[in-house]
Specification:
- This protein has 138 residues and is of the alpha/beta class.
- 58% of the residues lie in helices and 12% in strands.
- α1 crosses α2 and α5 crosses α6.
- The longest helix has 15 residues.
- The radius of gyration is 14 Å and the shape is globular.
């Protein structure tokens, strides 16, 4: 199984945001244990670095966080065609559209996000970490 992790799921773990950290951590643990293949988009990696540095005020911690992330998930290819496809859709949120486009082109089964409504228009199944864990366990 392949999943695309939305930025908010990763940030919940890295910044230990309650009450979301526990289930987001469990999803990433499944990736780390190679029970599922986890992906993030290249743009998510830069966003994650920026957000961790902003909230911790530490470049070193931001690099450590991204380094750990890269041990757990793979960065999916973002092609010129992916960007053009997302651009042509002209969605309200270009970043979410690009994540969904990359999830489709990399044949991910789900996008794992806390903001499912942000992905409704893109025809890629989106689940919260809690929903995914319930489905994965069954």
């Amino acid at each position: 199984m392949k999943i695309m992790c939305d930025t908010n799921v990763i940030i919940d773990v890295l910044l230990e945001r309650e009450p979301f950290v526990e289930n987001s951590y469990k999803v990433l643990s499944l990736c780390e244990e190679h029970r599922i293949d986890g992906f993030v988009s290249a743009s998510s990696v830069t966003d994650i670095y920026y957000l961790v540095r902003k909230y911790t005020h530490s470049t070193d911690l931001a690099y450590k966080a991204v380094g750990k992330l890269l041990e757990i998930v793979k960065v999916c290819s973002v092609t010129n065609n992916d960007v053009l496809t997302a651009f042509q859709i002209r969605a309200r949120d270009f970043e979410d559209c690009l994540v969904a486009t990359c999830a489709k082109s990399n044949r991910c089964d789900y996008i794992i996000t806390r903001n499912k409504k942000d992905f409704e228009e893109f025809n890629v199944p989106a689940l919260t970490p809690t929903e995914f864990l319930l489905q994965f366990a069954s």
